[in-house]
Structure formats: C-alpha cells, structure tokens
Amino acid sequence: MKLKNKTSRLSLLAALVLMLTAVFAGCAGSSDSLIENEVNPQIDVYGVKIYMDEQKVHESVGSQGERAMCVYGYEYEYADKDINIGFNAETKQVRRVGTKNPETSIYGIKPGADLETAYKALETNGFAKDEDSKYVFRKENVIFTITSMKGTNADGLTIELDPNQK
User: CA-based angle 69:56:45, to the nearest 5?
Assistant: First the structure.
C-alpha cells in the first residue's frame, strides 16, 4: 500500500511540474504572440514592425537614417520621414517605433489627432493608462507613449517593448 501511495505522490508531482511548465511556456510566448498577431498589424509606419531586422527597416523606409546610441540599444532617426526607430543592441531588431508623421498611424491614431480620440482608441484595444502619466499606456510588455506639446493633441506616437521585461 505504501508503494502505491508513493507512486501516486510522484505521479501527482510530475503532473504538477508538467502543468507549471506549460503555464510558464504559455506566458513566455504570449507577448510574442501579442506582437505578431495584434501590435504589428496596427503599426502603419513605412512597413516597419517590432522585431524587424535593421536592414529590412532601411529597405522599408527607403533610406539609411542617422544612427545614434540610446539607453536601450541604438536608434535611427529618419528626419525626412519624421520617424525614429529603436533597436535592441543584442538582437539588432526593432524594439521601438516612433512617429510624428501625420501620414502614418499606430492603432489607427495619426500624429495630430486629439488626445481624447487617441485615449479612446488605446483603451478600446486593451491598453491601460499608466498610473504615473496620462500620456503612457501599457498592455502586457508593450508601452504606448503619446507626446503632446500643448496637452490637446497627440503630436507624436511611440510604441515599444518594455525594456524592463524580458
């Protein structure tokens, strides 16, 4: 009887380990799924997408831009297009897309849109306003930041991967 009880405990422990492994694996993949299935289709900035390789970005934008170092890697400023693309230094892939160009949009929001319209679009898409700023919204490991010079319009838009989450 003791052997059966010990075997049952081991089976239960093994099942628990498998279940936890599946849960954590699902969590790890969920942010990549969010980027691929939701975020990237909502970025309309010269074809640039999160996780895109540097060379592909230059091809999509149609110029090389001006490279500069930044806190979480490096970035390219495409002054002629009024956009800024940030890269992860290790992977050399896009981690941030910023635009002030009214011919572009992110989540249907164009630079120049009134703030209430921008806020509504973000909240409709599941972003929650950050506690510390009325211009920052979060969803899982994605941060959406609005730049507003006068507090009435979204003069600039930035979507990025949270650098504090891996």
Answer: 80
